[in-house]
Amino acid sequence: xxxxxxxxxDKVGVDKNKYVSKEYQDYGxxxxxxxxxxxxxxxxxxxxKTADRxxxxxxxxxxxxxxxxxxxxxxxxxxxxLRENKAGK
Length: 89
Prior knowledge:
Elements: H1 4-16, H2 23-35, H3 41-50, H4 53-65, H5 71-88
Helix pairs in contact: 2-3, 4-5
């Protein structure tokens, strides 16, 4: 029989990874954490599922190399810019 502390620790471990069951969910969640935009983690998970991963990586590296205050907004701007350039070709 488990103690109450062990049961609570097991419960906390389950809730810790509630956003991650697929690879794209993990990528989107990590992206949101890196950008400091935890409020919009579902948006990043959706982008990780639907958008081209190369575009996401380009945007990610651009934003992390910058010194921006609002990294989430800069990420979305860069993504829009890359999509427009791709569509214009």
